[in-house]
Amino acid sequence: MQLRLFAGVSVLVMTAGLSACSSSSDTSDGSSGGNTTIDVWLMRDSVSAQFQNEFVKGFEAAHPDIKVKVQIQEWDGIGEKVTAALASNDAPDVIETGNTQVAQFAQSGGLLDLSDKVGDLGGSTWLKGLAEPGAYDGKQYGIPYYAANRVVIYRTDLFKRAGVDASAIKTRDQWIAATKKLNSGGTQGIYLPGQNWYTLSGFIWDEGGDLATQSGGKWKGALDTPAAIRGMQFYEKLQALGKGPKDSDEANPPQADVMAKGKVAQVVSSPGGANVVIQDNPALKGKLGFFPIPGKTAATPGAVFTGGSDLVIPTASTKQGAAYTFIKELTGDTWQKKLALAMSYVPNKTTLASSVASDPGAAAMAVGAAQGHATPNTPGWAAVEAKNPIKDYMTAVLTGGDIQKKAATASEAITEAMNSGS
Fold it and tell me: So what's the pLDDT on residue 422?
């Protein structure tokens, strides 16, 4: 699944979105004398060319018997391309896939079961938002690669003027109180579009709810549960402290453009969104800060949707041993630390969070990542996102609709969509 963290950011370099695969340049010139050559599909812009080349060079030096041939894939259309590759006799040996797409590919039987490798890879400390969607039907197919999630980007000067200390905001109640103080004098306390359903999901998870639940092999929409209702009620309260449109998401208009105009104190985004704001308004350079989305209590940060990528090995690969060696290196502690610093990503393990301490945005993101979740782990979720009744539900509530009735309608739509192919 594409990581829609700051819409309008040209699918961000902070994006982890799966949508397509058309191959292009290799990173190796073919001069290596390795005995085995593995074909690796990595997604465009998930990592920089500099980091990719550094890793391949280091890997081949450490494993002179393995040569790596990387093909860069495009996001658009990746699902269809991977599905076709897995069904062929000419699949690559390693594929980078969106964390929430692993179930779709595993369902076909085209991915290698790596459950027996979890201990060897340090799986006990993997981020849940990457590890859980990388599993399907009780087996681990996807190995966590990197993660990104939302934080609060705020104007340090506006906070200072309002007498608000961002470091003291640890709970949702404190966040509301601070945002009320900021929402004055022509300044929006927060710009939160009405259909930012990933942010709503975090509030629902905070309350102990979910978007859908499974029972007896069937999925059922869960927006009408008491916990999910409480999450929507908090969203409604927060959204009212700004002028975000009630009938569109963060892409329409791009919230970076809105914040760049100088009248917004906060947005919920990936840290990379701050770069876009500054690009649009250089006068805001040095005036943007970050803090994790607050939780219900100070003891636990707010839950967030974890976007990112996993690495998988097709069952059709004839070089699975070398492919596993590649994955073990790239997802190991040494290269994860380097990747996090190079790309401002969250490393794949909770034990590595300190490696991004010097990067304020990534450090705030890492705090939230410990409370990361993914969308329901089933191939049927794609049908929900295709129509997305969650967005319609949010708009209906924010424009005065009965929350219980609208939640029930949305839950029914989710239930129908998730079970339409079963």
Answer: 56
